[in-house]
Amino acid sequence: MGILCYSLGLKISCGPTSETRGVVRRELLVKLNEELGKGDDRAALSLVKQNQAQPGGLRCFGAALQVPQRLYTLDELKLNGIEASSLLSPVDSTLGSIERILQISAGLGGLAAWNVLELNPQQLFYISLGLLFLGTLDLVSFGGGISSLVLDTIGHTFSQKYRNRVVQHEAGHFLIAYLVGILPRGYTLSSLEAFRKEGSLNVQAGTSFVDFEFLEEVKTGKLTATMLNRFSCIALAGVATEYLLYGQAEGGLADINKLDGLIKGLGFTQKKADSQVRWAVLNTILLLRRHEKARSKLAVGMSRGMSVGSCINIIEDAIDDDDLVVLSE
Questions:
Q1: Quick one: which of 125, 101, 259, 236 has its CA closest to 177?
Q2: Contact 135, 147 (CB under 8 A)
Q3: pLDDT of residue 146
Q4: What is the CA radius of gyration of the chain?
Q5: Contact between 261 and 267 (Cβ < 8 Å)
Q6: Mean model confidence pLDDT for the chain
Q7: Most exposed among 223, 245, 252, 258, judged by the fewest C-beta atoms under 10 Å?
Q8: Which is higher by pLDDT, 110 or 77?
Q9: Bridge partners for 209 per DSSP
Q10: pLDDT (mean) for 55-70
Q11: pLDDT tens, 170-182?
Q12: Which residues pair with 7 in a beta bridge?
């Protein structure tokens, strides 16, 4: 923290000023981008942890003010303005509408081709069989990646609403992960961008994380409550962001299914599973409300394709010390 001293009417800086701290942090984040670019997750995370409580370091990483963990009722969620059904049951109406339009167009196109090309029933049968085979091949070999790529690309091209939802959704994941202490590794905002970066149709748009600690705990069968809490909040951050902005989540069903699978894999009773999810919902919603300014600015930065380091810098600049837990050096 910068401290100002006064002697004989002269102002002397006895510690790092806010400007100096900003320069130090930016240099640190350049190094972080380099480590992430090399794929060295351990070095990247180590760099962040070493600079959590240092002057010019990363104040916000893992420093979220979180609600106490206990069993919250649905009525308590409602008292906090949260309707769980609207948050935990996302239906992608935008892409659903696009898919229906494509199906209708394909049907009409088939009829037109039948009339123009004078196809006989046997030819129509073989064409239909070929299309069915291609659809099955996509589903089995690529997990529906080709169809998802087509739908997502059309959605981004023709729907501003869809583009905005995706950006805000991923900004929610990024922000919450950073605040609860999981380092974002990178992000993509479209299936096409993900395909270009990863070269795989099985990879969808989204935010990736430095998660080797989580994977190591899962592998040993000893997942700590702290790690479960972190990933529960991260999994729900996207749908929670959409819920706060639009009143209903559309994307994020895969995130919810992954969290559900993780909890079931841990052998939780229904009561314990409900407790975990409700706490995570409340905690995530309250964090997003408290840091709405940071999330909004982060979404703008992500829409411009800023690096992970630059996105972290946005968060650090947007959040005040009063909204953070004080971390010991």
A1: 236
A2: yes
A3: 63
A4: 24
A5: no
A6: 82
A7: 258
A8: 77
A9: 184
A10: 91
A11: 999 999 999 999 9
A12: 10
pLDDT, tens digit (0-9, with 9 covering 90-100), for 87-140: 888 876 655 565 555 556 555 565 565 566 566 666 555 556 555 544 554 454
SS (HEC) of the chain:
CCCEEEECCEEEECCCCHHHHHHHHHHHHHHHHHHHHCCCHHHHHHHHHHCCCCCCCCCCCCCECCCCCCCCCHHHHHHCCCCHHHHHCCCCHHHHHHHHHHHHHHHHHHHHHHHHHCCCHHHHHHHHHHHHHHHHHHHHHHCCHHHHHHHHHHHHHHCHHHHHHHHHHHHHHHHHHHHHCCCEEEEECCHHHHHHHHCCCCCCCEEEECCHHHHHHHHHCCCCHHHHHHHHHHHHHHHHHHHHHHCCCCCCHHHHHHHHHHHHHCCCCHHHHHHHHHHHHHHHHHHHHHCHHHHHHHHHHHHCCCCHHHHHHHHHHHCCHHHECCCCC
Length of the chain: 329
Q: How far apart are CA 301 and CA 171, in angstroms?
A: 9
The rounded distance, in Å, linking the Cα atoms of 302 and 256 is 23
Q: What is the pLDDT, as a whole number, of residue 102?
A: 54
Give burial (CB, 10 Å; 0-12/13-18/19+) of 243. Answer: buried
Distance separating alpha carbons of residues 105 and 236, to the nearest angstrom: 35
Dist CA 79 CA 76 (whole Å): 5
Span 20-33, pLDDT tens digits: 667 889 999 999 99
**Looking at the DSSP assignment, which residues form a beta bridge with residue 5?**
12
**CB distance 175 to 294 below 8 Å:** yes
- Angle, to 10 degrees, between the axis of helix 160-180 and the axis of helix 270-290? 100
pLDDT at 137: 45
d(CA 179, CA 64): 5
CA distance 142 to 52: 40
Q: Which residues, including other chains, have CB under 8 Å from residue 168's CB and lie 6 or more apart?
A: 241, 242, 245, 295, 299
The residue type at 27:
E
